[in-house]
Design goal:
This protein has one helix at residues 3-65; strands at 69-76, 80-87, 92-98, 103-108, 112-113, 118-125, 135-142, 148-156, 159-163. The protein has 166 residues and is α+β, with helices and mostly antiparallel strands. The chain is rod-shaped.
């Protein structure tokens, strides 16, 4: 064999080995891409799971900051109606009461109502006539998260019931 033939053979071997290295590199790159794709999918699933968990935690925290009014006993006459309630939800502040009816409405306390604390609402006829039945009223308040909220109630036959928002 001449030197030119040896060089041609060496060149062929080097070219063949280079081809093998390129094929191996392409296969490794493909495997890395598949693994990376699977990892990205898993991370997306984890992110979605974490977002759902966070959403549920936020809902739970919001629920804990909102009041739940449990109506208790009271007294009443034709022109005056008073009812006690207990806040079985989160503490609230800045309480106020509003009604479109021709009634003087009052709520106690107005500054702060803690969890399980009792309060009183009083309605008195503004014109000395009999209180209308039914009538609606709203209790406005601020939650611990500094959200100004309200709950609407309908009094029928002397019993207040919350009007659920749609």
């Amino acid at each position: 064999m001449h030197a030119a033939e040896w060089l041609m053979l060496a060149q062929t071997i080097v070219l063949f080995l280079t081809g093998l290295v390129v094929i191996w590199y392409a296969w490794e790159t493909h495997q890395l891409r598949k693994t990376s794709s699977r990892q990205a999918e898993l991370m997306q699933q984890q992110l979605a799971s974490m977002q759902e968990s966070l959403r549920l935690d936020i809902q739970e925290q919001l629920r804990k900051t909102r009041p739940f009014f449990r109506w208790r006993g009271g007294r009443g006459s034709l022109t005056l109606w008073e009812r006690e309630f207990q806040n079985e939800g989160g503490p609230i502040s800045r309480l106020s009461i509003h009604t479109p009816a021709p009634i003087r409405a009052r709520i106690v306390p107005t500054d702060l109502l803690q969890t399980n604390q009792m309060g009183t609402v009083t309605f008195e006829s503004a014109d000395g006539n009999r209180l209308s039945d039914p009538f609606v009223f709203e209790i406005h308040y601020r939650t611990q998260l500094d959200e100004d909220q309200r709950k609407e109630f309908r009094v029928e036959n002397g019993t207040p019931r919350e009007i659920e928002e749609a």
